[in-house]
Design brief:
Layout (H helix, E strand, L loop, with lengths): L12 H62 L1
Length: 75
């Protein structure tokens, strides 16, 4: 809150309504941003988990290929 938010007397209903409307819009925008931020954090977490699983599968596949290659060399 700042000086621009100061309400002078006598209170003019239109000005008060306008200020309340602005604060309500700011509150709703803040809440929406917080929800979007949470959704993004969740998506990041899911992506990181998928990347970790992919890396494990890749390492497993590389090990399997090395084992098969070694077996073929001795055959």
């Amino acid at each position: 809150m700042g000086a621009v938010d100061f309400i002078t007397k006598p209170i003019v209903p239109e000005i008060l309504q306008g200020k309340v409307r602005v604060f309500l819009e700011l509150y709703e925008q803040k809440k929406q941003l917080e929800e979007q931020n949470q959704a993004l954090l969740s998506a990041i977490s899911e992506r990181q988990q998928a990347e970790n699983e992919l890396k494990q599968h890749q390492e497993h596949l590389e090990k399997w290929v090395e084992e098969r290659t070694a077996k073929m060399q001795f055959a």
